[in-house]
Amino acid sequence: MTAEVVEDEAAFYSKAEMYWKEIPPTVDGMLGGYGNISNVDITGSKKFLQKFLGEGAGKTGTSCALDCGAGIGRITKRLLLPLFQTVDMVDVTKEFLSKAKSYLGKEGERVGNYFCCGLQDFHPQQGRYDVIWIQWVIGHLTDGHFVQFLRRCKLGLKPNGIICIKDNVAHEGVIMDDVDSSVCRDLPSVHRIMKEAGLQILAEEKQDNLPEDIYPVQTLALR
Fold first, then answer.
1. CATH class of 2-222
2. Binding site residues for S-adenosyl-L-methionine, as ranges?
């Protein structure tokens, strides 16, 4: 549990904010120097997400998506804007959202809102989103705030909407990273939080073809 590794909650969040303010607003910066994995990541995410989209009973619509921890909009540009009519972006770093407006190009005109906010304080508009995509950012939330945020996301979904989480998973327990002030949870810890938030797992799969020197990456769809 994060309570065992996060000694000072306020410092945990402020240190992360300071870390990201020093990171260049580039794809390589967003991916911690692993910009070369972007294509593999996006391809895997698109294949996973498209299983849920479409028309018919239980299918998820394509009118509006939310990109959480959006950075400069790498996922918004390459995954969400090609699939959804409108995308909202939320990130704690103002400079990243400013850069997004040029990085996204003309397609950025279909970004509805740029929210500058930490996820621990962010409240999605109720009933707005078909898909809420949360990638490589849950480690910046304590367990309690993670549960609360997922509950708010659930309220932010349209009928048949889904929450997708894609993130690193530890082999065992919860591991603190003092450099960027984040935690990496193992899958049982992630599952426990999702259950506490009242969400069911619809699908779960490991991202293939990533470097061996990073934690495994898991993608989950929740409702």
1. alpha beta
2. 69, 74, 91-93, 119-120, 135
